Records
---
Amino acid sequence: MDFLESLLVGFVGIVVINNFVFTKFLGICPYLGVSGRLDMAFGMGCAVTFVTTLAGGLTWLIDTLFLVPFHLEVTRYVCYILVIAGAVQLVEMYLKKFFPPLYKSFGIFLPLITTNCVILGLCLFLNLWQVDNIVLALVLSFGAGIGFTVAICIMAGIREAMELADIPTCLAGAPIALITAGLLTLAFMGFSGMIR
Amino acid sequence: MSNLKLFFRESWLLLVSSVLFGGLLALTDAAWRPRIQQNEINKFSNLARTLLPAAETFEHLADPIQIPDDKGRPMLVDVRRGLDASGACAGWAFVCEGSGFADKIKLVVCVDAKFEILTGFQVLASNETPGFGDKITIQNGFYQAQYKGAPAERLTLHKAGDSKLIDSEIIAITGATVTSQAVVDILNAYVTPIKEQLRQKGFLQ
Amino acid sequence: MSKENTMTVGQAFIGGVWTEIPVLRLMLGLCPTLAVTTSVKAGLTMGLCVIFVLICSNFVVSSMRHLLKPHLRIMIFTLTIAVFVTIADMYLKAFQPVMSEKLGPYIPLIIVNCIIICRAEACAAQNGLLVSVVDGFAMGLGFTIVLCFLASIREVLATGCITFSPTLVLTILKPVEAGGWFTPWASMLMPIGAFVTLGLMLAAVNQIAGKKS
């Protein structure tokens, strides 16, 4: 029961309290790039969630079974980035074969997932938080992906509505998106202190 | 066979650069690793030394200290004895942690040689709200100063009062009651059990 | 690789520090920009690390540009960047432990900073050694300037002063606690401060450069 509770706390914590986009500033580039349309944002979020779960689990295994026992921590970053690149390639091939329309709509963004900070950031934070079992690692990875999806979907909804608004020309596009994101972080700060 | 040839023709650069980069990493690692490890060791003693200026070195106890955690399960605590230049006990230092407002708070706490008076705490890691909760990290700020000389017993938190008065009543930081309470709770959870354990194991009279 | 020497040294330098200044014009590398700019010192350290990694990776990529195979290209770029980031991270851990602690995972996150891979692809893979190195330096410098500028706005508004070390503190606005008039804006240290300041900065640059679109 304790174990389940810790999983639940970890999951809720990483989705709303320590949301990667709003508190750790990870994944801002795609957050601003793709969040123009809700359906694309949701697709991107799903792809990221899938890759983070895969990469989080794999890097955790590599770290505990291979890098730490053999004292190869110095190659940690290289290993992580290679695992992530491999996982992204896998997702790309899978989508191309089974969901061609989805593949087409992602266009350039799929290879860009490799350089999405959420994924590498998550792997690094799993290491920093000293997560000591694979189930928790998987739950946290999944939660980080869900947190990213939530953030990017909220943003896309707001930006769809904002297309109709009259924004000063110099603020149009990225600047207003950043300011909106700032206000969202303020809203998400209300969640901190929820779990103690 | 031709497959293998193709493979090498396409990827020889990748293989060669991997080997070269591997060598480069190994070299830097060999050169800097001792320093990095030394830094990690120094980090604890540097923080602890600001609280126990008399202590020269910090040694681990031969018999590890175990106290019950919040669910009653045994938990190991890293308690170290500070030794002064002559080798006498100058005080005790230990690392403790608990949940704060946003994330875990990790503290280094120091107590005098008789384990009766706190000499203060320093923050090892925290992620509290900037401008409010993170005031606990200000070295010698009014919040930290209240612990310097406070009795090593049960502490209580109060919203108002005289923060200059050093006793077991800690005055909260305005706007950061949860964080202030968290630090008090962490100390309460650790100080008394550790004191009992030390006494049982004969480290204290 | 037929497009040899498409840029001159001068173009590369100007490109890096103004016409294509990363963050503001290319919208690349936003994550570290927002995360580490709570203090000028952190921003400066981050910027120097990025300069180091950019110069080294551009140098390596440029020197092997004739040997690159198209489909393994990105792989080699990533590997190169990851290695130099590891070296930078170890240097900080060994010689600047406090800073390393503060920047935490944002140093390894330089690996996925789009600026670096973008420069390897767009510049170093097509240009000679000198131009590539200058481009790396200029891009890194542009990034550092933006980081420091943003960080100085945030740090001054949040604390009233710029702290380089415990002994070297530059007071610009005297806070109330020290007997001045300025009430520090704690929110500048929070995520909101980062987002809004960067948003306004982008707007200002758009205004100055007269966005043509």
---
Amino acid sequence: MAEKIATREAYGNALAEFGDKYDFVVLDADLAAATKTGIFKKKFPERFFDCGIAEGNMMTVAAGIATTGKTVFASTFAMFAAGRAFEQIRNSIAYPHLNVKIGATHAGITVGEDGATHQCLEDIGVMRTIPGMAIVNPADAVEARAAVEWAINYKGPVYLRFGRLAVPVLFNGADYKFEFGKNVRLREGKDVTIMASGTTVSIALEAAELLAAEGISARVTNVHTIKPLDTADVLASAAETGAIVTVEEHNVIGGLGSAVAEAVCAARPVPVVRVGTEDVFGRSGKVPALLEAYGLTAANVAAKAKTAISLK
Amino acid sequence: MDNAKLLSLKETARKVRLGILEGVHAAASGHPGGSLSIAEIITYLYFEEMNVDPANPKWEDRDRLVLSKGHTAPALYAALANKGYFSTDALSTLRQVDSFLQGHPDMKGTPGVDMSTGSLGLGVSAACGMALAAKIDGKDYRTYAIVGDGESQEGQVWEAAMFAAHYKLDNLCFILDLNGLQIDGRITDVMNPTPHDEKFGAFGWNVILADAHDFESLEDAFAAARACKGKPSVIIARSVKGKGVSFMEDQAGWHGSAPNDEQYAAAVAEINSAN
């Protein structure tokens, strides 16, 4: 059984780890204990600033700091970053293309018991429509750490999406290299491609096992960079496997599924079946029950893969 | 203030007013009322108060100005052009499709613009970030933000006010342009944001009252702001919207409409004939 670590935990640890090596500032909005920026705060109190429960102000403060040449991480839950502070992100951070990294934790349905108001299922959709915004959604703790170091060195705004729930560690920390904008092929296959992002990557891998047991060969691709999308890889998978299933903790409208469908429709039309929340709000519940309720299970992904194959 | 300085500032403010009118007339759109009300404020900032270098607009130790009421960009552009950041010839290109003078300030496109603004309530927070960055780096540059009185209806203005006081940003100074009008009418009729002095005071700010059209009053106010340690300052500057063009003065209708050719000629004549 693989070790399980939440990507938000890896985020906080990475900030603290790389705080020695790089000069950056971290802001939070009274959620440092939950977003894990508190780990950085403990080590570098002079570079950490709590903004209180005022996310809009925090995002534009981050922009103002960034105008002076500094790199800034601004953290809160995805709901209050992409949701509450959408306009501050668009107008104050992205329009001037400032060096602000939005560390959005507690994304998706796996927030669990807190329910719909805190389960952000729209953030990728809204962030994706902002010109010049990079969106990175790490699949595990190793990738999250690597993505944080990449973001520190990248010039421009980045939306980093992290989960609350502990998820399996998929990658080997010693030799893992994060390549921005490059999909990671985790399993070869010829009948269908399962493209997953963030916390659903491990579900996609399980689904491929289920399909293999039925004689179906599924390629599994980790799409850690949702924008800019690795269109070349998406189109290659469309051509080589003839059908795609997308899996994400997000509304099927606007997220990874939409991004993949847009790319495929424009250049290499093949069936694209999207797994995610079906244009509904979330609700309170234990995480396994929620994943079951919204179809984010290996069994459902495998079933949708068969649907996609049947549409070829 | 000695007479020569006063005359020089008045002459610059006159040029700023003409630049505002030239821009909005050429564009046949824009916001003359709130631009004219800050003509002396922005003139004093760029020609007396702020430590800036037009030849090096991104100089890292410069004082910064955030025009939080970004719709009054014509005043900012006129001040920057007269200061030498770019040619005054550019003012007539305001809002044209190939111009670097956007309808609202764009820090990437316009030399001297320290922050992109336009959506109200945001610039104040950016100014807080700049002031905080100076504190982090131990630099002594100052940050200014011009805030609209109508803009103060935005909740984020008060989030920023709380933040600046909490982090004791005494290198930060807001100038609140109290012209009393917004698009839909008097601020006190639309959604009363007053009294600003008591509100900022309650948030922990050093509050200074000034006459927005009197350079000696502004000189005293900025000196008082610089002298205050341990908390941010706000200069509440009572102004007249449309100041200097009699038919625009204190008229909400001139918030966001441009003069036609005849009105433009009359406005220019009035400003040129004023003392």
---
Amino acid sequence: MLTKIKQAGQTLAQGGLLAAAVAGVFAFGAAPQTVQAQTLLNVSYDPTRELYEDIDKAFVDFWVAQGNPAPEIQASHGGSGAQARAVIEGLDAQVVTLALAADIDKIAKEGKLPADWQSKLPHNASPYTSTIVFLVRHGNPKGIKDWGDLVKDGVEVITPNPKTSGGARWNYLAAWAWAEKNGQDPQAFVKSLYEHVPVLDKGARDATTTFTQREIGDVLLAWENEAYLAQKELGADAFDIIVPSISVLAEPPVAVVEANIHDDAQRKLADAYLNFLYTTEAQAIIFKDFYRGWDTSKADPADVARFPKLELVDIAHFGGWAKVQKEQFADGGVFDQIYTAK
Amino acid sequence: MLSLMVLLPIAGLLVQGFSAGIPAFLAAVNTPRTWAALFLSFRLSLVAALFNLVFGLVLAWVLVRYRFPFRKVLNAAVDLPFALPTAVAGIALTALYAPNGAFGHIAKDWGFKIAYTQWGILIALIFVGLPFVTRTVQPVIEEIAREVEEASATLGATRAYTLRRVIWPMLAPAALTGFALSLARAVGEYGSVIFIAGNIPLKTEIAPLLIVIKLEEYNEPGAAAIGIAMLVMSFGMLFVINAAQVLSRKRRGNV
């Protein structure tokens, strides 16, 4: 559209200056529209800041190399649930990359994207996975090795509020899975676990700050990538990562928000952006930023070797997010009972 | 204009809160956790506002009546809690009062915890509310001529008597207004408290956080129900304060 007007302008310019000026005005008027089509807002969850900073840089280079004008990729980060609500309430996000499929389901329920969104991209639309590990103070002074050690006398556990944090729900489910496997009553176990929590932060990043900066607590239940990131930023001699015997396979999914796509150019960009996450190049970045990717072919072997193998259970083990959300975290659910039964 | 900006949101709150019917409204509010949060919010706000009333009055008095180095700097600093984004205030206070912070460290040596307890919440509420009292009474103190006190003294009044019967009646209406503003601000304060409170249900969970939690559960009527409960309680408190002002005017004449 823009080029056509420009060409017309050039033809007309030979006819007269005035006509050229008019065409110039038209071209100018059309310009902002084209620029707008090249912006993309990615609404993501809390601990992906560093990942998407790197991904966005690589994607812009990739997109420009394919002969497209440089797009402007914007990112918004916050608690997964709060981010989903912002999109439902009208935040103009073209793609969402959240912590839980349940949160994207909520957006789909409002008709902003098709209900079968998770089948549109490989691996259940999850370009990377992560798990929950323990971050402890250097030397592990309290001798924490597995979930059972968290409820010992004198151990303080930092984990955010599962009501407001997607990561915290995974923490909770991982503890649940351990209790199930070890013949304990899972509900009693998570109850005693939360009795060891002195601060219930709103999001995963807040909890990391409480543990690392404020030096509260003996163990942080953290996203694996957060644990490695904290170690990288604050020095390997400050914290140790403890891998429990069992944890969860978190599959943070991504999707295009159809209702917020304004034209074909933007759709192309949004699709390309999400597909880019599955390329060998992006997968290498994913491994570098401490997420577990799928394709190791271009990744630095050291980044891949970092992740220990452990027993992982996925959300299907618990009956899917819809069931878990209703039974565990809804108003009056199992989690509420922990704090209402005195 | 006023009805658009104030009444419309309140009407929306009422509609939303009662949208599921009265029983659902009661079910949302009448839980031990909600009561604990409401009681905590209002109790600490009241204590913070009382503290601010006394300390804010003293501060305003000192700023008006005494000349000392850096008075102007201190005077400007009073407005800081107004200007500072509440989240920044919350993070700064937490950094100071956490067990590894400057003040928190001293408290820890004494076997005392401030951040992540109710004390932490109280400190944040005092911080955000202080300028309300100081700024409302300051102009009134400026209007009080020293001669009034001198006249009182020449008539044989003691200093305490002058303060009680001459100064306080002139200050009372402004001081009560400042108290009410400070209280109202503290009740609704979210941003700064959230960082320094431990947010543990039944212990350090404030009512505004409970509203946010309900919203994140996509439970708008539940959130609105707690909002209405807060509105009713705030209204009741402001009513009492206004009544106190009216009474003091009747007793002492309109000053």
---
Amino acid sequence: MKLDSKIPEGPLAQKWTNHKNHLKLVAPNNRPKIDIIVVGTGLAGASAAASLGEMGYNVKAFCFQDSPRRAHSIAAQGGVNAAKNYQNDGDSVYRLFYDTIKGGDYRAREANVHRLAEVSGNIIDQCVAQGVPFAREYGGMLDNRSFGGTQVQRTFYAAGQTGQQLLLGAYSALSRQIGLGRVKMYNRHEMLDIVKIDGKARGIIARDLITGEIQRHSAHAVIIATGGYGNVYFLSTNAMGSNVTAGWKIHKQGALFANPCYVQIHPTCIPVHGTNQSKLTLMSESLRNSGRIWVPKKKEDAEAIRAGKLKPTQIAEEDRDYYLERRYPAFGNLVPRDVASRAAKERCDAGYGIEANDTNEGVYLDFSTEIQNKGKQAAYAKGNHNPSAEEITALGKQWLEEKYGNLFTMYQKITDENPYETPMKIYPAVHYTMGGVWVDYNLQSTIPGCFVAGEANFSDHGANRLGASALMQGLADGYFVLPYTVSNYLADEIRTGKIPTDSPEFLEAEARVKDTITKFLNNNGTKSVDYFHKKLGLIMWNKVGMGRNEAQLKEAITEIAQLKEDFYNDVYVPGSADEFNTELEKVLRVADFIELGQLMAMDALQRKESCGGHFREEYQDAEGETLRDDENFKFVGAWEYKGDDISKEELHKEELKYEEIKIAARNYK
Amino acid sequence: MAKSALLKSSIVKKYWMALTGLFLCLFLAGHLAGNLQLIFGDALQFNQYALFMTSNPAVKLLSYVTYFSILFHAIDGVLLTYQNVKARPIGYAKSNPSANSSFSSRNMAVLGTLILVFIVTHMVNFWAKMHFDKNMPVYAVTVEAMGQKQNLYYTTSGNYIPVESVGKNVQDATQNGQQIYLENGREFFNTQAKIKVSEGYKDLHKITFAFFQHPKTGLIATILYVLAMIVLSFHLLHGFQSAFQSLGVNNKFTPAIKTFGTLFAIIVPLLFAIIPVYIHFVK
Amino acid sequence: MSAAKNININLKIWRQKNAKSKGSMETYKLDNVSTASSFLEMLDQLNEQLINERKEPVAFDHDCREGICGMCSLYINGRAHGPDTGITTCQLHMRMFNDGDTIYIEPWRSKAFPVIKDLVVDRSAFDRIQQAGGFVSVNTSGNTIDANATPIPKHDADKAFEAAACIGCGACVATCKNGSAMLFVGAKVSQYALLPQGKVEATNRVLNMVRQMDEEGFGNCTNTGACEIECPKGISLENIARMNREFLKASLK
């Protein structure tokens, strides 16, 4: 198979404009004759469904949650990037493009990323027009903050709930279309397979999660916007229901899966507390604007802290190792996520971790310096040029509360510790997956008519995503890319007419789904679904996690293959098919996670270099930084499904061409 | 807006509840000012006030608004309660409402019903007597003249008419040879000419004192009255500031409104309650 | 951190096979629950135990487990989202309970939120209210005016955000003795009423959303304030007052 990225010709900055000018259109009177299915209602899905509905297509939107508003985009905290240069610090479309490519460790497509940067400004305009209440300054203008991997302030935010506000904006646009009858919404429905007719995507098989009914839905195009696959690790910052099933099912039907090994481990999450833990909670990256990360300089101090004999506040300033500031003076605490995460792991592996859990994995995020600085500033601003220490501390805490109040409260509720008084404990956790279904420039997968948007595709973040770029990509795909590219595809479908759902292809796909369900329900094993999911998660975290090496990856591949066998032999699913059955939902998802996990290990094994979130211990420089191999690995690794045995999957390479950017080693020092 | 929404929409029901409720608060204040004359004024002053309240056309208009408010407040309350009961067909096995709301706010319907019962009895005891009781006494004073006690009706024009010279009605007066007889409860008519010569005051003061000082039922009446005022107090504790919220007033003045509402809800019923206690125990 | 310990608890949980069947409270015993666990992790533990006993696990709604998606929805010991304030059920931790406690767990109770199974309810009424007017009618072309073309006073933007922070979990309805949805609707109406973008459609928005709210069978607000106390996002009663104002304004137009 030859991968055609369909990147338009011409200078980089004009590619998208030129491309749009030449895409085919569907006339307004023809649009109502065309059906489109959108699976997933996060930023990408909701915005795509709303836009396509508004254009006049018949849209059917699906989400497994009880409402489209609950998609996991809602949990994004920090912000959304846009090259508006409102802060007059030299930002531009080019810089956003450059930062994103560099942040992704030169493993993303130039053309896609440039398009993303181009439309970033429209996103903010659109959202403001929709009534998204971004943070503002006293003059009434929009406020911005900095995020990791950049030296400008281009991140728009709404307290620590930016994802929520953006999603609710998209949800409101979607709701408007549902109310107008342009979009038919299917809540609590899960896509379990795709239907292909003559090679084209023609519909999906979905399960009504309340009644268990298996439904056939036809359409002229199918858009998959179902998010990332971080839950393959069991513990992650993803929602419990986040899953790879839609993406994996299209993979099994012919869509290539690209760069599965690119996983972002977010540096600032609350550490693991115990074996019953179900999920990890993120503390927004924006906290790194104000917090300083450290561990004790002396191992004995770290031990004493873990034993509960010392408190962090008792460690003297000179005995603290602000290791990010030490190693990366230029970016300090605001290095990209992968860099910050690995640095934390390095310290903890060396024995300086401060959390009293099984693995001692935890470092401090300390706000005391910021409390002093901001307190002093606030006192001066109030005309008090001689503030007392207490006044400074009080004002500083007040400043923090205004800026991060909800995050601090969340932290306190979970850990029972007051972060205004004692530093937060944090540790990296699986957060985002840069890999995903391979798509061309039009966001179309290798199945014609099947488009993939948002985190579910692989396209824009290379090997590492910068903070506040996921929201940008989701909305860019949904609002500003898919409406054009999907229409281009559909221009040839105006004569197709309604697609019947009783064709053999539909019946066959339905039978596939029903068989799988029956098999699991009759399996009569002895172990719960979670048992296997947790086992998979441990293998993935320990061997396909932050630091990877050949031996462990090979072990992982064998162990996962074994786990898969055990799973199919011994999993127990209570209940029946025709009812609300959460265990059945889970087993179908975990089955796909297991296969994906194996492919991730294979992908990590073949990529004999370190880049972004993919760190191969064999490939690092003297200072422990990633060592890319641009000569041999400057490609997108896209895998083709070859049957039930995942180890037989075939790797296809899409060479990455850098025309605009001079490729270089990433340096944040 | 569709006209039907004026009654149907849940928010409009709240407006009506708030408007009628606030009007009734005004009524309470006025009523209290009048009643306090039972303590601070003499019988004449009180009866003059009572006459004013039953005869002045503006007051009459207000009184109709009051009747309407009470009725509408009650009917609207029933509708609200019906809607609210329907909204939760299956209740909770365990509920801990005191964790998040006040007793009064949760029991407005019960408190309101009790108040309605009180209002009805209260009106039967006083208002109905004042308006319809044929045997309602007319205000008279006792003066000592020449060592003899004499009972005299006091007329609205400030004259005195000896009680014994007035017949209960025209027949009595004719029989007993009295010059004057009483008509319409408090009007003095000339027996021969059958024309009105002057007007007296219905003695509501006497009725009231008698009611609360009744040797058998006075104490129980006083206690019930005080209890009713406690119920009213709880109703007002929530109702007063709630009305402002319903009408959309929730701003920088809200704390002041809440404080005023609390004071109003305590002071007004307290002063109301003091009156029968004073009559029963002190007078 | 107060050191985590293990406690044993008794659970009384509403079990109901499906929307049509009659449910009842069932009793379960669960041992060795870490006080560092979240409430939902405790339920995971119970379900693991039930599955191992070949019994049907308890169905409950949950997703993000960090207090933002609004999916979790339990009435715990007589309170929406349990005994702590300012949080959702998924943020409730077992350290709020003691060894030997009996914990009641029930679904949201509202005519407009019918039970689907066990502790899972159908909250699509909220979606329909949103569809009736919870939006600004602007096409998604991106060709709107520049985001900074209309300055918005920080105070208004902040207030709009506070209203928009609603997660649509339905705790307000569940906790309200009247099953009223006015905090939810008030918050949405307020968000748009406070912003210039929302002013154009303000009249129709409030009328349509309130009409839909009434049609869904929610109860009426009697200003008990319980919703504000139990709201995990601290949405203020001010928003209901603002909706009342907006409705009045719209009605008089």
